[in-house]
Amino acid sequence: MLIESVGLLLISFAPTPFVTIIGAAITGLGFSMVFPALGVEAVKSASSANKGAALGAYGLFIDISLGISGPLVGLVAKQFGMNYIFPFSLILVLSGVVVCIFLQKSKRNS
Fold first, then answer.
1. CA-based nearest residue to 10, from 29, 35, 34, 38
2. What is the spatial distance between Cα 70 and Cα 76, in angstroms, rounded to a whole number?
3. CA atoms of 37 and 3, how far apart (whole Å)
4. Contact status, residue 89 vs residue 6, Cβ threshold 8 Å
5. Other C-beta atoms lying within 10 Å of the C-beta of residue 4
6. Cα three-residue angle 73-55-6, rounded to 5 degrees
7. Rounded to whole angstroms, how far apart are CA atoms 29 and 39?
8. Which residue blocks in the chain are alpha helix, DSSP H?
9. Residue 42 pLDDT
10. In whole angstroms, how far apart are CA 32 and each of 49, 82, 109?
11. Which of 8, 16, 18, 80 could form a disulfide with 84, with the two C-beta atoms 3.0–4.6 Å apart?
């Protein structure tokens, strides 16, 4: 998620279209690593009998999050303008980093 954040930061403040393209590539690279990594963690935490259900639930929730984020970003664009969608997305991804850190710490304590 931190790699994805770097890409979104580049897009947010890109001085040229080329920097924007580099930021988009970094964002995509970050997301392509996050999706399977979080899926592995979801399956690891399930019992052997429930691993398939855990993977299915993970797939469902990623679809729901993508379905919600599109209209949410659209609302941000409508309310504040297109220049705010990438900083807003950056905030959402950084919120995900915080949640992952919290979950990791709570997992260590149990």
1. 29
2. 10
3. 13
4. no
5. 23
6. 40
7. 16
8. 2-12, 17-44, 51-80, 85-109
9. 82
10. 27, 24, 29
11. 80
The whole-number pLDDT of residue 62 equals 86
Cα–Cα dist 99/44, whole Å: 18
| 22 closest CA partner among 62, 13, 92 | 13
The amino acid present at 25, given as its one-letter code, is: A
| Predicted model pTM | 0.85
Token pair of 89, please? 């997305």
Tell me which residue of 33, 28, 26, 34 sits closest to 7, measured CA to CA: 26
Tens digit of each residue's pLDDT, the chain (110 residues): 999 999 999 999 999 999 999 999 999 999 999 988 888 888 888 888 899 999 899 889 889 988 999 999 999 999 999 999 999 999 999 999 999 899 888 878 76
